[in-house]
Design a protein that fits this description.
Layout: H1 7-26, H2 33-40, H3 44-52, H4 56-72, H5 75-93, H6 98-122, H7 129-139, H8 142-161, H9 165-184, H10 199-206, H11 209-240, H12 244-251, H13 253-272, H14 276-293, H15 298-312, H16 316-326, H17 332-361, H18 364-383
Helix pairs in contact: 1-5, 1-6, 1-8, 1-9, 3-17, 4-6, 4-17, 5-6, 5-9, 6-17, 7-13, 7-16, 8-12, 8-13, 11-12, 11-14, 11-16, 11-17, 11-18, 13-15, 13-16, 14-15, 14-18, 16-17, 17-18
Length: 388
């Protein structure tokens, strides 16, 4: 069945919204860590598990999921994985022990493993190379948009009803996203259907050095970004004396800037044909802004958070574009599974590691400095890319 050129934007939105549903539930937890810790009587390192466990399934499932998508596409898998997000959110909402909360987050992670790998693979089927940067720029706003909505939603609902209620909202959003996905997603005309994906093709994808380099940049980026998003609210509350709602809004501040600038940098990269400078500059400025934020207050703190968000916006669309450009469209599933594998490792380490630094040092500056080292590592890795 053929579709008008405008239909590709509907497909892009359905993929985007499915990712947002997952990311919304994932990002509810940072604003709730203090409440959950008091409720279950656990320490900072253990609380970090509620963030990192979401990414653990993806470490083991990323490559197998990519192979499934290469062979069968992502229409049915996308619907089922978004349903899993709803189940994981509802399980967390109903949790009355720390173990049951971890189970809900783990189920969320299984659905998320499919969504993170699968949703971007649909986009190269509908957008040509000339428009791919722009499309990935829009798609790359998924995590910022989800975070912007999740942080204040979690804080406000928790203040009025308790920490369980935000997850009921998350389950409802996921069900809506699953319905839209099932109705809208179709295979695109740019998908290469003539070539079967066999062992040689998969081996070629897995051995693609540029995909691995881009994936490592993405791993270091996510380690830094999730460290900030997971603990900034708690740190701003404890060390800068901000109230819970204001701390949540400020902690999500980088995502406001990123939501605006991700599509702009995606467009700029496509217009200039340049990839490496965006990835390098974004990583360096992230590291610097994070360290500045540890020492300043009031307006300078707000400005450092905004700069952090603008810098963070440089990386996501470029990583996705480099990955898509490095492989034929019928191998996109394997490419994005490598990206997801590295991302999940970074996020799985991020929150517990940052919690451990905070727990052992009791210092804001050392906590942010530890997270910034990964951004510096991402900048160095970006310099090794062959792309311009």
């Amino acid at each position: 069945m053929s579709h008008s050129p405008k239909y590709r934007w509907a497909v892009l939105f359905a993929s985007f919204f499915s990712f947002v549903a997952f990311a919304f539930v994932f990002q509810l937890m940072p604003s709730l860590l203090t409440n959950v810790g008091k409720d279950f009587g656990v320490n900072e390192a253990e609380l970090g598990l509620l963030m990192s466990i979401v990414m653990v399934p993806g470490i083991f499932l990323a490559l197998p999921v990519g192979l499934l998508i290469n062979r069968y596409g992502f229409r049915l898998l996308g619907f089922l994985s978004t349903i899993l997000v709803a189940i994981g959110s509802l399980t967390t909402a109903l949790a009355d022990t720390f173990a049951s909360a971890l189970l809900g987050r783990f189920i969320l992670g299984v659905g998320g493993a499919f969504i993170i790998v699968g949703t971007p693979t649909v986009i190269p089927q509908w957008f040509s190379r000339e428009d791919l940067g722009k499309a990935m720029g829009f798609f790359g706003t998924n995590m910022p948009v989800a975070t912007i909505i999740a942080f204040p939603t979690a804080a406000i609902l928790t203040e009025n009803f308790g920490w369980h209620y935000p997850f009921y909202v998350g389950a409802l959003i996921a069900l809506v996203a699953a319905t839209i996905y099932a109705l809208v997603i179709k295979e695109g005309s740019l998908k290469n259907k003539r070539e079967m994906v066999g062992y040689k093709e998969i081996r070629y994808a897995v051995r693609n050095v540029e995909v691995w380099k881009a994936s490592l940049v993405w791993m270091f980026f996510n380690t830094t970004a999730i460290a900030f998003l997971s603990w900034a609210k708690t740190l701003f509350q404890d060390f800068k004396g901000l109230d819970p709602v204001l701390s949540s809004i400020l902690a999500s501040g980088p995502m406001y800037a990123a939501a605006v600038f991700v599509p702009i940098f995606g467009w700029a990269s496509g217009k200039t044909g340049r990839r490496k400078p965006f990835m390098f500059a974004g990583s360096i400025i992230m590291a610097l802004a994070l360290n500045v934020a540890a020492y300043v207050f009031d307006l300078p703190l707000l400005l450092s958070v905004i700069v952090l968000g603008i810098a963070a916006a440089m990386v996501p669309p470029i990583v996705m574009t480099v990955t898509a450009e490095s492989l034929p469209s019928n191998l996109a599933g394997t490419g994005f599974s490598i990206v997801t594998l590295c991302q999940n490792i970074g996020i799985a380490l991020s929150a517990p590691m940052t919690g451990y630094i905070l727990q052992t040092t009791g210092r804001l500056d050392l906590t942010f400095f530890g997270a910034s080292l990964f951004a510096f590592a991402g900048a160095i890795t970006a310099l090794t890319l062959k792309t311009k």
